[in-house]
C-alpha cells in the first residue's frame, strides 16, 4: 500500500491544533498575552473559554472550523486559561477532551493523513504492506501509548508482533494517537511560571473555576482522599486486609484486589510488600515484582485498578455488604464516598 505524502492544510491545523505546523503558524503571528485582552481578539478569547468549558461539562471539545484562524489561535489560548486555573482536574479534563475529539476526527481520515499525524510525534510507523492491517508501529511507541488502556486486546501478548512492529488497523492507530495527544496537552498545561495576566483574562479564569465547582461533583474534582483511612475500607477489602495481616491464605484474585486497591489509595509499595511478609509462602523477590507490576512501576507501566463489585461477587469476595455498598459499584468509589461520610460526621 503506497501512501501519498500529506501537506497539512489550514483546515487540518484547525482540527488538529497540536501539530507542529500549527504551533509554527501561531509563532509567526507573534501574539502576546496582552494582545488577547484587546477588543480585536475577543473572538479568540471567547472561543478559548468555550473550549475549556466544553471540556469541563462534556469531556470533549467540538471543532468549529468555519473560521480556521480563530480555531487555531484559540487552542494555545485555551491552554493558557486551563493552566492558569491551577486546578489539576480542569487540566486533566481539558487534555482528555482535546484527545477525544481528535480521535473522533482521525477515525474518518485517510491512512496517509493518520501516518502524517503519527510522524508529527516521531512515531516509528509505516504502512502495512504484508498483513491485512493498515499500519505497523514499533513496539516501543505501542507500549508507551497503551499504558492506560485496560482492555485485553491492547496487551502486547495479544497483538500480532513481527520484526519489532505491532500491526494495527486505522481505528486502533487513531486511538493510540489520541493517547499521545492527551499526554502532549497535559505537558503543555504544566506551565511552571505563569506570567501576570490582564484583568480580563483573570476574570475568565475565575469564571471557569466557578463553573467547575458548580457543575462537577466534589468527589470527581478531588479524586481519592490523600489521607489513608482504614475505617473507610469496603467490607471486602477489610476482610482481605485483616486476613493478610494475620498470614491467612487468600486467593490470587484476592491478592490482586487488595494490592491494586492499596496502590490506588496511595499506600507505598514497600508497605504493601511488608503486609504480605506474614504469609508462609512469602517470597520477597516474587512479591516485590508482583506489587511493583500492579503499581505500574515496572513492565508496561500500567497502574491496575481493583475489579468492580460485580466481578468481586462472581469470585465470592463480596462479603458483608453494608449500606454504602448499595451506592457504589467499585471499591475505590466506596472508599471515596465512605471517607467523605466519615469526614462529614467528624
Salient structural properties:
346 residues; mainly alpha; Transcription Elongation Factor S-II, Chain A; 2 domains; 4-stranded antiparallel sheet; 17 helices; globular
Cα end-to-end separation: 66 Å
**Coarse morphology:** globular
Computed Rg: 24 Å
From the helix content, strand content and strand pairing, which structural class follows? Answer: mainly alpha
* CATH fold field value of the largest domain: Transcription Elongation Factor S-II, Chain A
Amount of beta strand: under 5%
Order of helices and strands: HHHHHHHEEHEEHHHHHHHHH
Residue-averaged pLDDT, rounded? 89
Name the strands of the widest sheet in spatial order: 1-2-4-3
Range of helix content: 55-70%
Gross CATH architecture of the largest domain: Up-down Bundle
For the report, how would you describe the main beta sheet?
4 strands, antiparallel
Structural notes for this entry:
With 346 residues, this protein is mainly alpha-helical. The chain has 2 domains: 10-219, Transcription Elongation Factor S-II, Chain A (Up-down Bundle), CATH 1.20.930; 230-345, no CATH class. The protein is 56% helix and 4% strand. It has helices spanning 10-15, 20-29, 33-36, 42-58, 68-84, 88-106, 111-120, 139-144, 170-189, 199-215, 218-222, 235-245, 252-264, 269-276, 284-294, 309-314, 331-345, and strands at 125-127, 135-138, 161-162, 165-168. It has a 4-stranded antiparallel sheet with strand order 1-2-4-3. Helix 4 packs across helix 5 (68-84). The longest helix is centred in the middle third of the chain and has 20 residues, at 170-189. The protein is globular. 32% of the residues are buried.
Amino acid at each position: 500500500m503506497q501512501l501519498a505524502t500529506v501537506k497539512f492544510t489550514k483546515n487540518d491545523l484547525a482540527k488538529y491544533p497540536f501539530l507542529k505546523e500549527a504551533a509554527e503558524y501561531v509563532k509567526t503571528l507573534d501574539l502576546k498575552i496582552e494582545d488577547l485582552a484587546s477588543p480585536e481578539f475577543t473572538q479568540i478569547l471567547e472561543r478559548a473559554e468555550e473550549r475549556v468549558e466544553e471540556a469541563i461539562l462534556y469531556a470533549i471539545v467540538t471543532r468549529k472550523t468555519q473560521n480556521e484562524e480563530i480555531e487555531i489561535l484559540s487552542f494555545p489560548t485555551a491552554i493558557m486559561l486551563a493552566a492558569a486555573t491551577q486546578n489539576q482536574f480542569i487540566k486533566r479534563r481539558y487534555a482528555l477532551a482535546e484527545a477525544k475529539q481528535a480521535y473522533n476526527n482521525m477515525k474518518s481520515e485517510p491512512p496517509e493523513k493518520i501516518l502524517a499525524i503519527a510522524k508529527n510525534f516521531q512515531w516509528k510507523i509505516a504502512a502495512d504492506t504484508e498483513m491485512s492491517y493498515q499500519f505497523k508501529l514499533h513496539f516501543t511507541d505501542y507500549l508507551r501509548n497503551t499504558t492506560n488502556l485496560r482492555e485485553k486486546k491492547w496487551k502486547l501478548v495479544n497483538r500480532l508482533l513481527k520484526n519489532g512492529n505491532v500491526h494495527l488497523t486505522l481505528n486502533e492507530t487513531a486511538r493510540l494517537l489520541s493517547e499521545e495527544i492527551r499526554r502532549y496537552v497535559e505537558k503543555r498545561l504544566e506551565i511552571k511560571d505563569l506570567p501576570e495576566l490582564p484583568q480580563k483574562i483573570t476574570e475568565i479564569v475565575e469564571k471557569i473555576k466557578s463553573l467547575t465547582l458548580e457543575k462537577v461533583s466534589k468527589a470527581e474534582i478531588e479524586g481519592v482522599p490523600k489521607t489513608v483511612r482504614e475505617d473507610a475500607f469496603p467490607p471486602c477489602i477489610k476482610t482481605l486486609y485483616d486476613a493478610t495481616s494475620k498470614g491467612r491464605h487468600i486467593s490470587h484474585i484476592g491478592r490482586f484486589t487488595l494490592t491494586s486497591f492499596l496502590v490506588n489509595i496511595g499506600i507505598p509499595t514497600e508497605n504493601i510488600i511488608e503486609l504480605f511478609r506474614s504469609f508462609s509462602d512469602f517470597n520477597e523477590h516474587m512479591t516485590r515484582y508482583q506489587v511493583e507490576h500492579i503499581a505500574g512501576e515496572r513492565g508496561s507501566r500500567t497502574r491496575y485498578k481493583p475489579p468492580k463489585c460485580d466481578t468481586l461477587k462472581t469470585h465470592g469476595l463480596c462479603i458483608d455488604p453494608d449500606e454504602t455498598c448499595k451506592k457504589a459499584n467499585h471499591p475505590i468509589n466506596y472508599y471515596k464516598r465512605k471517607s467523605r461520610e466519615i469526614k462529614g460526621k467528624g
